[in-house]
């Protein structure tokens, strides 16, 4: 079995609209941190000099949105009200959604914006794969090549509402993309809405989730390394209580 990493990193050294904070405590700092915590919480004192080399365990403190790096969106991310009931948070999602056969759709020829259902149907036909209920659909837009740059957030292809509905009609419940968003870039959406005042262009892929329960995987990577089908996607989200999303180390499993 071959494992292909489909995840982008959470990295405090690259450009993000919501910057990541990464505080590192060295092994020596970790010893002092442990000493202070034991004294404050439990009234116990311990001299770090007793430790080998005066070192304990290093620590990393990360402050980041759950939508930084590769992550899974829960239905609760899309809105407070849905037509099907109370939307589930990420810790409530069934795990069997996230260990399923996958297939890749090639959208690399599409321009910045959102493709429609006809474009997506053509991509499905070209893939040679007939989607089955609960398959995980992965959209290869090529956007991961811009990871770490401002253009990663402004130059990519998303889905419009009918294209999203098409995948859900086929029984898909998890749709993944290597782009920042399953919708068109925020900049593209706002410009089109300002020109047309047509509310249907406002984040339609996400807002489909107010009518139909599904999850997205955003900010994937390396989808170009996958065959069109014949692999399994594993993308269990981190169990964050009451959260609208959770990070995932998404991988594809291929039988060699």
TrEMBL record:
Protein name in UniProt: Cyclase
Q: What's a single GO BP term from this record?
A: L-tryptophan catabolic process to kynurenine
* Protein origin, superkingdom: Bacteria
Cite the GO molecular-function annotations of the record: arylformamidase activity
Against Pfam families, the record matches this protein to: Cyclase (PF04199)
Q: Which SUPFAM superfamilies match?
A: Putative cyclase (SSF102198)
Q: Which organism is it from?
A: Longispora fulva
